[in-house]
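Subject: Interface between my chains keeps coming out wrong

I've been trying for a while to get a sensible model of this assembly. When I model each chain on its own everything looks fine, but I need the whole thing in one frame so I can look at the contacts. Pasting all components below, labels as-is. Any help appreciated, I'm running out of ideas.
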Amino acid sequence: MKRPEPLTEVEVDDYVQMVRLYLGDLDDQTRDELTDGLPADLADLVADHGTEALADPEVYAEELRAAAGLDPRPGTSGTDHSSPRRLLEHSDALLDEAGRRVWRTVDSRAARTVASYAVDLRPMWWLVRGQVAFWAWQTATAGQNGITLLPWQRAAESFKDGYSETVDTVVWLVVMALSLRVGRMARRGLRTPPRLWLLAANSTAALSVLYFLDRLENVYYWLW
Amino acid sequence: MRGSIRFVDATQLLKGVLDVAVLAVLDEDDGYGYDVVRRLRAAGLDQVGDASVYGTLRRLYASGALTSYVVPSTEGPHRKYYGITPLGRSELKRQRDEWVLFTQAIDRLVDPDEADDQGRVR
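Reply #2:
Try treating it as a single job with all components included. I did that and got this:
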């Protein structure tokens, strides 16, 4: 049998990552069982028919889980649209469709590679989001004074009455843990309304990063 | 509202019989996912989707009808092989019997003359 080129292997790996992304609502064990051995099988498929034979990863993931007897992904067309939650489910469907349209527009080898890296880097975003929440807390408890990367770097005089380095440290640990927890939950697929709240919170956090970085007292010390 | 006639859709038919087809293929010899797809297609099931086959393999494995083992490869990712278990064999026999009864019933309905002839030959 023809051995696939190394570049094809990368494409297959990226594709498997995308399929796993669409199986994100399943627990780790089920997802691993569904995709274990898939890279070798898809490498054979590509060797026989080329990368054109790789279907839309979302459609592929749906077919895989349907054949495995698993429920459709939350928010997809498999849900009951006659229930009172119809409006919320409709927003789920709209968000899904928007995602699909964006993906269809940008779908290419480069986009798949970027998307695959983005999936791997997601925990880093969860940490950044937690940090932004901490900076919001620091801003609320220190007025116009600067914010710091770590809780114990803050000058003693910048604390309002009742707040201290210990309180800051506890808050920092809690928001970081919460952000990681929410990230892990969202990876399994959320439905509205939590999905809409998270979208709003993520957008706010992403937009706030630059604002907070600008205010960070010792940013030069940490970056260089 | 006017009704419509649904013509025979091989893809829909396949969904109902994929379990027995996969079990029959693995009853001959163990195989990995894409190998099973190839053997099904070689048998004439051209429209079988590979994701449907992989999902079916995982489900049959979870139900105890199949066993699985990993074969490492020096050239690329490892292959996950599947083999049929005694439970899978008894399930295959049960589904085979059901399939024969079902097809005989449909044969009698859609082509009664041919079905009669075959019945006489038997």
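Reply #3:
Confirming on my end. The CA atoms of residues 123 and 214 of chain A lie 23 Å apart.
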